[in-house]
């Protein structure tokens, strides 16, 4: 029944949905977590449901914990499950922003429990802040990092200040010189500021005197030192944000620029709150851009020599392929064989292939001209519900369940460019599979992905039970890098650890059938145990227990990428082998503004509804069939 105070003003921008927030705010491009960091710096911060104990906000100062390393304790509060060190990624990036005086944007989420005020929206942009202090607190048996932010513009009233509150003190009347007491620790000789009213303590976690007032451990309840809350940093014109707090794309757009595909081409207001405020008139603001297709040459980098086959330089850190310039000429064929798993064939195109009529250059323009119905779909497994894929997708042919659920259009409705791409992919699939002596199943499904600048596809596999063992992808447009790595479970021999309540490393369950892949962790030990088990020398229990003991010696980690492919415009990649999708995963990161990836599969007919079977039927016209040149 508490009467909530109302806040003083309106945020400069807001969103009711996290995806929209992350898509439009350049300093907060993250769908999860409280902190956006990139290139080693923290750029933006979200204050929401759980800032940890002693989270503090007033009109000009925010004190909160740095997320990460946390699980919920018995009372449902987030507590660090291990020490957060100064060299953790999150701590390092906030310290980097502190040292370089980089302004950090802040967002106020309505699930906070701190301010006694009602926030107008789910996510409310606050203002630019500067990082003034980063220190460590003891929490339970661990330590975690805390940060103090101070509003950059102290002259202006903060919109989140309580309604009717006094305007901020004019700058000329403020005291910028008084700072809270700071003392050098006699143990570690490092300075720590007096953060708490209860007493000065050393805030260096590696010091013996950390978190002690005098000789005794600090009390669990602590109060902030008023001088720590009230000090202010002098304004400094040198400290400038490197983008606007609320970007305004519309007036800066030049519709005639060939570069238009780098920006999103359409805006639509999705704010339903205006509807309630204006008595049901939902805002109809919409702006659709005419986008002219960009030619492939716009994306070329200087190192690409037209009409010459690129020299391949292979990085010894990754698998070196077999090179064959003859059998699929004019393509160069690179084959990566994974024993007992499958193979990956990379068909390297060149300018002669790309510039032929109906070849990759024409397909790239053709795909931009068609309204393919490319959309971003919600990810099915995501920590934050409603997170959309970081790429656009549309499916043609037999429907199947992709990482996300994508509606499938019949090949009968597909534009010519799609069928032409399908012709190329069928040929590549056939060539790669037959040369390996396997049976060729013609693809009946084609997934088109579209990537604008900054988009990508994260690690995943294509091993859906309804799909055959072969996938073929045609790359068009921007150059990209494909990474292939062993899945966590197969690399480590066990699933991810499930619980580490007591601080010990607990591995998840051991693999039922461990293929002991070449290059996996503890390979020799795992192979030796497997051989003893298979020879009947040890029982299943002994085999499992020995593996558990073995895995407890080292913490599991992600496998490093085993294969790296540089995918250029016109290149094709065929992956073959059911086990390849079972044991390995891949991700693709484009480097430039616009890229399409068209991937064809064979969907097993018994996995498709009878009524939808015909969606996968097609007949290619002679000009859609690819002759391999
Ligand atoms: O963008 C690419 O080249 C890869 C696409 C992919 O992995 C997929 O569609 O499953
Ligand atoms: Fe894939």
UniProtKB/TrEMBL annotation:
One of its GO terms (molecular function) is broad specificity oxidative DNA demethylase activity. It holds the Pfam family 2OG-FeII_Oxy_2. It comes from the Eukaryota. Keywords: Signal. One of its GO terms (biological process) is DNA alkylation repair. Coiled coil: none annotated. Residues 442-604 form the Fe2OG dioxygenase domain. Gene3D superfamilies: Alpha-ketoglutarate-dependent dioxygenase AlkB-like. PROSITE patterns: FE2OG_OXY (PS51471). 2-oxoglutarate binds at residues 460, 586. This is Fe2OG dioxygenase domain-containing protein.
């Amino acid at each position: 029944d508490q009467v909530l105070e109302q806040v003083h003003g309106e945020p400069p921008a807001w969103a009711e949905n996290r995806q929209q927030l992350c898509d439009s705010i350049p300093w907060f491009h993250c769908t999860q977590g409280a902190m956006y960091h990139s290139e080693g710096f923290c750029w933006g911060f979200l204050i929401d449901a759980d800032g940890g104990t002693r989270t503090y906000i007033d009109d000009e100062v925010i004190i909160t914990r740095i997320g990460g390393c946390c699980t919920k304790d018995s009372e449902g509060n987030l507590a660090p499950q291990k020490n957060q060190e100064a060299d953790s990624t999150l701590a390092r990036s906030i310290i980097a922003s502190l040292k370089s005086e980089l302004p950090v944007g802040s967002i106020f989420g309505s699930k906070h429990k701190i301010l006694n005020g009602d926030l107008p929206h789910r996510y409310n942009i606050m203002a630019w802040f500067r990082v003034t202090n980063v220190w460590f607190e003891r929490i339970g048996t661990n330590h975690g990092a805390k940060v103090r932010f101070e509003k950059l513009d102290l002259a202006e009233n903060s919109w989140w200040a309580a309604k009717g509150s006094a305007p901020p003190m004019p700058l000329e009347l403020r005291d910028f010189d008084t700072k809270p007491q700071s003392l050098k620790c006699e143990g570690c000789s490092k300075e720590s500021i007096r953060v708490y009213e209860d007493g000065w303590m050393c805030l260096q976690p590696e010091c013996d005197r950390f978190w002690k007032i005098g000789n005794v451990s600090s009390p669990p309840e602590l109060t902030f030192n008023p001088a720590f809350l009230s000090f202010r940093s002098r304004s400094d014109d040198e400290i400038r944000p490197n983008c606007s707090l609320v970007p305004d794309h519309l007036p800066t757009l030049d519709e005639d620029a060939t570069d238009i595909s780098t920006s999103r081409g359409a805006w639509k207001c999705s704010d339903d709150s205006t509807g309630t405020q204006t008595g049901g008139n939902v805002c109809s603001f919409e702006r659709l851009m005419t986008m002219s297709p960009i030619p492939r040459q716009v994306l070329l980098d200087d190192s690409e020599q037209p009409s010459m086959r690129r020299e391949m330089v292979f990085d010894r850190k990754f698998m070196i392929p077999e090179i064959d310039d003859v059998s699929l000429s004019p393509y160069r064929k690179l084959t990566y064989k994974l024993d007992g798993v499958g193979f990956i064939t990379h068909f390297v195109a060149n300018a002669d292939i790309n510039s032929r009529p109906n070849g990759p250059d024409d397909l790239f323009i053709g795909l931009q001209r068609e309204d393919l119905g490319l959309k971003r779909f919600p990810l099915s497994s995501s920590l934050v519900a409603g997170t959309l894929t970081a790429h656009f997708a549309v499916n043609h042919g037999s429907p199947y369940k992709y990482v996300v659920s994508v509606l499938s259009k019949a090949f009968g409705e597909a534009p010519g460019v799609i069928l032409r791409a399908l012709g190329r992919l069928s040929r590549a699939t056939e060539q790669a599979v037959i040369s390996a002596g396997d049976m060729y199943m013609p693809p009946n499904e084609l997934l088109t992905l579209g990537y604008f600048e900054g988009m990508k596809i994260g690690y995943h596999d294509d091993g859906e039970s309804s799909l055959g063992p072969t996938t073929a992808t045609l790359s068009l447009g921007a150059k990209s890098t494909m990474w292939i790595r062993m899945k966590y479970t197969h690399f480590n021999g066990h699933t991810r650890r499930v619980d580490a309540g007591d601080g010990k490393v607990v591995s998840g369950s051991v693999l039922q059938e461990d293929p002991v892949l070449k290059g996996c962790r503890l390979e020799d030990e795992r192979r030796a145990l497997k051989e003893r088990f298979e020879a009947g020398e040890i029982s299943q229990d002994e085999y499992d227990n020995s593996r558990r003991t073995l895995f407890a010696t080292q913490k599991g980690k992600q496998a490093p990428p085993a294969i790296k492919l540089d995918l250029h415009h016109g290149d094709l990649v065929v992956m073959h082998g059911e086990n390849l999708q079972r044991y390995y995963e891949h991700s693709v990161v484009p480097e430039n503004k616009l890229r399409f990836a068209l991937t064809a599969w064979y969907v097993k007919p018994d996995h498709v509804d009878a009524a939808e079977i015909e969606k996968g039927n097609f007949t290619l016209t002679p000009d859609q069939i690819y002759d391999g040149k």
